Amino acid sequence: MSTDTGFYSIIDYTVDGPRTQTELVDAFAELQTRWVSFYPGYRSARFHVSTDGSRVYNIVHWASEADYRNFVETSDTEGRMSAIGAVLKTIAGKAEPRMSGIPTYTVVREVGPRTREPGDAA
């Protein structure tokens, strides 16, 4: 198994239930399509929702940190942030960002599946 290399931005929101999770994911997927997905090096945006209905994670995958930095430097950040603010006002429930600091990451290690061997823990 090869490590899924690249650069990631992980956006984390707390929400007040499954309905808000669905609304936020739908809205943020549209924002990714309209504001981000056409930039060079953009690979994907994955949306994860907690099973208890309290969190939404938007994991944006870039080919490299340089591609992400190019996006930050050349995109309409003010317009995008305004669009995010507008979306948050249209959601029926409550959604609040939970990021602290710059939410960017690189993959350093991955453990994939393998065949069980003698001596492995039960």
Per DSSP E runs of 2 or more residues, the count of β-strands stands at 5
What fold name stands as the CATH topology? Alpha-Beta Plaits
Largest sheet: number of strands, sense, barrel closure: 5 strands, antiparallel
Query: What portion of residues is helical?
Result: 25-40%
**Which percent range describes the beta-strand content?**
25-35%
Q: How many DSSP H or I helices?
A: 3
CATH classification, class level: Alpha Beta
3D shape = flat
How far the N terminus sits from the C terminus, by CA atoms, comes to 23 Å
CATH architecture: 2-Layer Sandwich
Global Rg: 17 Å
What is the structural class? alpha+beta
Round the mean pLDDT to the nearest integer and report it: 91
- The residue ranges in which pLDDT falls below 50 over 5 or more consecutive positions are none
Order of helices and strands: EHEEHHEE
Total domain count = 1
Keywords: Monooxygenase, Oxidoreductase
GO molecular function: monooxygenase activity
Pfam families: ABM
Organism: Rhodococcus oryzae
